[in-house]
Amino acid sequence: MSDTTRPLAGQIAVVTGAGRGIGAAIARKLARLGATSVLSGRTRGGLESTAAAIAQEGGQSDIVECDVTDLSSVNLLAKHVDSRFARVDILVNNAGIGGAGGPLHQLAPEIWDQILNTNLRGVYYCIRSFAPLIIRTGGGHIVNISSIAGKNALPNGAAYSASKWGLNGLSYSVAEELRAHKIRVSVVCPGSVHTEFSPHPGKDPERMLQPDDVAHAVQMLVTQAPQSFASEVVLRPTLKP
Ligand SMILES: NC(=O)c1ccc[n+]([C@@H]2O[C@H](COP(=O)([O-])OP(=O)(O)OC[C@H]3O[C@@H](n4cnc5c(N)ncnc54)[C@H](OP(=O)(O)O)[C@@H]3O)[C@@H](O)[C@H]2O)c1
After folding, report:
1. Per-domain residue ranges of the chain
2. Which end of the chain is less packed: N or C, by CB atoms within 10 Å?
3. Ligand 1 centroid from CA 195, angstroms
4. Could you tell me the distance, in angstroms and rounded to a whole number, from the CA of residue 39 to the centre of ligand 1?
């Protein structure tokens, strides 16, 4: 009989940007549900903290340093996961950066590149490397962590907004490409979340979304019945912060 408290037992979940914030909360949640969480990010120390928290909760994890802007680094991550586990059930593309605030016409091209290369190209790289493994596994989930800034105007954050609008379009399109392989590609668009990501001046942290709220949305997506496909979650705080 299957263990209803650990519906993801035996599954492998890769989470980018798992060393802190929303990614750490998602990796912990998936491990609590029984998956082995593969924690990736550029900073080993953060990944080790998440791994320690997962171990304390009785879960399983693995650590692989990876920069999502570097195709060879992403390929190495996929190769490691393939040789160690020979399957991938869940890929959460969470790694992302904000950017210096200000009007687009004053934005340095290098900052534009950093934002787009992390938030959009990085997701393309991860899907490029992992989709074949998920297809071989027989299906699974790809969850892209976008933002409400991918649905609304964000004055003084145009590059970030463009990266997330792009990510939404990528997600809807790839969802159609991979449906026939039993891979559900969904996108989560949270409003402001209380993390180290960027200052949220004037917002009450108590009213803001918490990282675990995003993890809860991911849990909902990856524990759906096989015939059900929630393709998008827009997550807002109940009270305006
Ligand atoms: N916080 C919010 O208000 C909010 C709202 C909506 C959506 N989001 C989205 O949620 C996601 C996570 O945000 P967060 O608030 O948890 O931010 P965070 O606390 O700053 O964490 C970002 C994570 O991404 C990793 N990362 C950054 N660049 C990377 C790269 N090139 N390669 C691999 N990993 C990289 C970071 O680790 P290393 O630096 O160690 O690599 C870190 O673990 C982002 O995509 C963000 O756009 C955030």
Report:
1. 12-235
2. N
3. 9
4. 13
pLDDT tens string 110-159:
999 999 999 999 999 999 999 999 999 999 999 999 999 999 999 999 99
Q: How far is CA 167 from CA 122, 230, 238, in A?
A: 10, 17, 25
Q: Which CATH number is associated with domain 12-235?
A: 3.40.50.720
The CA 214 to ligand 1 mean position distance, Å, reads 13
DSSP secondary structure, 39-76, as one string: EEES-HHHHHHHHHHHHHTT-EEEEEE--TT-HHHHHH
Decide whether any atom of ligand 1 lies within 6 Å of the 163 Cβ.
no
- Ligand 1 nearest-atom number relative to CA 25: 16
Which one-letter amino acid corresponds to residue 92? V
Q: What is the pLDDT of residues 153-208, one digit of tens each?
A: 999 999 999 999 999 999 999 999 999 999 999 999 999 999 988 777 788 888 99
By the 8 A CB rule, do 32 and 57 touch? yes
Distance, in Å, from the CA atom of 84 to the CA atom of 162, rounded to the nearest integer, reads: 36
- ∠ CA 20-28-74 to the nearest 5 degrees? 60
Residue 46, ligand 1, Cβ within 6 A: yes
Q: Assess whether the C-beta atom of 150 lies below 6 angstroms from ligand 1.
A: no
pTM across the whole model: 0.98
